[in-house]
Write a structure and sequence with these properties.
Number of strands: 12
Strand content: 5-15%
Order of helices and strands: HEHEEEHEHEEHEHEHHHHEHEEH
CATH topology: Amidase signature (AS) enzymes
CATH class: Alpha Beta
CATH architecture: Alpha-Beta Complex
Distance between the termini: 24 Å
Helix content: 25-40%
Length: 421
């Protein structure tokens, strides 16, 4: 949804403040959007679902929305999401199919696909995304923008995600500098999130251009198990060479975390089951069939299996904490494939059944809660973007941004002026 009248009114107020030499905060007059999972005062937050009644009081801003507003950002509207953000493509019965501006026959990914498209086409500068298993980084990779999943708790969240502590909020922008500015604002404190990190007042623009010389970067092309599109593999390997040219010490190494899909599934599917039990059978019948299916499967998981996955998640986190004693950053592909035909959860004729199967590089770092970003690193022969992922140690958000900025400076990136295809 777009609210042009409100946006113009807010822009005029911003203009008046600037004319008086008294801008409000860091973002006065900067156009921004909010993903339709994030509460926004005065606008319905439908969460991509037909079961949410828009005709109710919408009196609250989520912390991220409140921070943008307090700093003078001009909110343009809400961006599309699949129902409750459950999958890594963006379509729903409420808003239809969101398409990739690089080729409108393909998906922009998800679940922050609407935000990614808005960023890619310049429909606002700053975009709030959420990421529970790759939902910022996957669409960033597919649409050729920058997306950051900060350390868990860096950006306060309320209400908390029904999918639990794998879900993060973060910036989606055209440039790393814009993301650093946005994160500086989004990271300000809010007492409603009891998981939030203590606010240290950091300006994430500080040190952004310090480069990567001397940093120790582990390059894992496949995390030891993933199968890659050859064009993705080649582009990401070239990206690793760029970091070497910039003075980083790059070593090809497997972090030894293995395939985390089952651990993730044992968190994600019970989260879906817990979400859907709030609704009547009649309401559930209106929901995305795929969401209903994973919720039904989640209902069958024994509690002890879930608790075993919680233990495995803890071991995964320990493993990565130790790994970053030796390496400052981990470099991988963002996604092993490129954008595929829109309107499908998995690439047609791939033999896959669920999106988790094609997201092996993103979900591990939701489980470990580390900061991770996707930055464009090339195009396929068909002209579709490829993303490179940088993963930092827990709380190392500034380091991830710094490395991404160095790469962006070395390999500037064009974006489409209008949708193609």
């Amino acid at each position: 949804m777009v609210d042009p009248d409100r946006a113009l009114e807010d822009a005029r107020e911003s203009e008046t403040r600037w004319q008086k030499g008294a801008p409000r905060g860091l973002l006065d007059g900067v156009p921004a959007t909010v993903k339709d999972l994030v509460l926004t005062r005065g606008w319905p937050t439908r969460r991509g679902s037909r079961v949410i009644d828009p005709d109710q009081a919408w009196d609250d801003d989520a912390p991220a929305t409140a921070r943008l507003r307090e700093h003078g950002a001009i909110l343009l509207g809400k961006t599309a999401t699949p129902e409750f953000g459950w999958k890594a493509v963006t379509d729903s019965a409420l808003t239809g199919i969101t398409r990739n501006p690089w080729d409108t026959r393909t998906t922009p990914g998800g679940s922050s696909g609407g935000a990614a498209v808005a960023a890619a086409l310049g429909m606002g500068a700053l975009h709030i995304g959420t990421d529970g298993g790759g939902s910022i980084r996957i669409p960033a990779a597919f649409t050729g923008i920058f997306g950051l999943k900060p350390s868990f708790g860096r950006v306060p969240a309320w209400p908390l995600s029904p999918f639990g502590t794998v879900s993060h909020l973060g910036p989606m922008t055209r440039t790393v500098g814009d993301a650093a500015l946005m994160l500086t604002v989004l990271a300000e404190p809010d007492p409603r999130d009891w998981f939030a990190l203590p606010h240290d007042g950091r300006d994430f623009r500080s040190g952004l251009d310090d480069g990567v010389r001397g940093l120790r970067i582990a390059f894992s092309p496949d995390l030891g198990h993933a199968r890659l599109d050859p064009e993705v593999a080649a582009a990401v390997a070239e990206g690793a060479r760029v970091f070497e040219e910039l003075g980083a010490v790059v070593e090809e190494v497997d972090p030894g975390i293995g395939d985390t899909a089952e651990i993730f599934r044992l968190h994600w599917y019970p989260g879906a089951a817990n979400l859907l039990r709030r609704y009547t059978p009649e309401q559930r019948a209106l929901m995305d069939p795929g969401l209903q299916e994973i919720a039904r499967e989640g209902e069958t998981y024994p509690l002890l299996d879930h608790l075993a996955a919680v233990d495995a998640r803890g071991e995964l986190g320990r493993r990565m904490r130790q790994f970053h004693q030796d390496y400052d950053l981990l470099l991988t592909p963002s996604v092993p494939i490129v954008a595929f035909e829109a309107g499908h959860e998995v690439p047609p004729d791939s033999g896959m059944t669920r999106w988790i199967e094609w997201a092996p590089f993103s979900n591990p770092f939701n489980l470990t809660q580390q900061p991770a970003c996707s930055i464009p690193c090339g195009l396929t022969a068909a002209g579709l973007p490829i993303g490179l992922q940088l993963v930092g140690p827990m709380h190392g958000d500034a380091l991830v941004l710094r490395a991404a900025r160095a790469f962006e400076s070395a390999r500037p990136w064009p974006l489409p002026e209008a949708p193609r295809g």
